[in-house]
Amino acid sequence: MPHAPEPDEDDFDARPPQPVFHVEQALLGALLLDPHRLGDVTGIAADSFSTAAHAALFATISTLPPPDPAEHAKNTNWLDRVLATGRGQARGLTASYLHTLVQVCPWPRHAPAYARMVEAEHARRRLQTAAERLVQTVHDVSLPHPVQAVLAEADALAAVVDDIAARFPPRAGVLPRTAAPSPLVSPDYTEAVEEEQLLLATATAHPADIESVRWLLPDDLTLPLHAGLWQCLTALARRCEPVDPVTVLWEAQQRGLLDGGSEPGEVLHLLAEPAGSVEHWGERALQRSLLATADRTGRRIEAYAGDPANTPFQLVVGARRSLADIGAVRTRWQHATGTVPTPRPRPAPTTRAGPPTTTAAYNGRAARATR
């Protein structure tokens, strides 16, 4: 098969073309050879293609009336119209490139299979883009309401997953083989540590208020020591035992929290400086946990989608499991703030129908898991 560079200079890339580029060439070649096969191609649109030139060609083929098969076999009139129209959308298209597309198509009758491959690659790119937007939103310090913005992006990401699932119904639940990215250190790490210390000290001074923040879990706290001390506080309060810095220290020793090198005097000092309210610091910790969870989820899905070896089925399974993490924290956030926002409507698939599946269930499953 002869190699053909991308015809549009806007699409130029110094790297070798990816496999989907050659798939797109084969599909376009099939449609140029046998325009009537366009009726067998479903699930894709012009924006499903990886280059502007290929998108322009597909859009042109889709809009021009198909030629008479007998006439098409004898002359190039229809191909000339395709070229003239396509040049209006993508610079650099030439008759020689159309000839190349025809030459590199192995079997025009395989056009539906080629289209399915193009659709799968487009789904992967869409998922990667949505995950990137979620991560960018988490780190956008200019947002006045970061939690609401992040949850909106999580819903948008879930909608993309739903659409992919409708197009590619999952088979047996095979997780992506891609390794999850390493956790990032939060840029507000110092602030988080200080606020968690205030939370622990204030809860020690006002143990009756611990019951009001049942939605806060140890894993929401940044440091393992802080998570362990919160477990100590909640355990003492649940058992209706006296709570003060000394009793918390003793509980910490019983749980092995001091084995990691923490000095008893440091723990006592940490617990002896309350300020503000338990609910305020708890909500701050939960908000930070929600944003961190969204960041991890977005980067994990981004890594899944960035690995071309993962099939659409694997992407759906991996993305839904990852989104369930956001759903669990989201439910607790709603309990903490008393807000239950109206779910955003999910758009129906535009070009391919499939079995009704929904990632909206990730919120419901997560809510049941926290009861």
Write a compact overview of the structure shown.
The chain is 58% helix and 0% strand. It has 371 residues and is an all-alpha fold. Helix 9 packs across helix 10.
Describe this structure in words.
This protein is mostly helical and 371 residues long. 58% of the residues lie in helices and 0% in strands.
Percent range of helical residues? 55-70%
How much β-strand is present in the residues?
A: under 5%
Shape: rod-shaped
Number of helices: 14
Mean pLDDT across the residues is 87
**Major sheet details:** none
> Which class best fits the helix and strand makeup?
mainly alpha
H/E topology pattern: HHHHHHHHHHHHHH
**Measured distance between first and last alpha carbons:** 59 Å
- Stretches with pLDDT under 50, minimum 5 residues: 1-14, 349-371
CA radius of gyration: 28 Å
Number of β-strand runs: 0
Chart the SSEs and their pairings.
Elements: H1 19-33, H2 52-63, H3 69-74, H4 77-87, H5 95-104, H6 111-138, H7 146-167, H8 189-205, H9 224-238, H10 245-254, H11 264-270, H12 278-305, H13 312-337, H14 361-369
Helix pairs in contact: 1-2, 1-5, 1-6, 2-4, 6-7, 6-12, 7-12, 7-13, 8-9, 8-12, 9-10, 12-13, 13-14
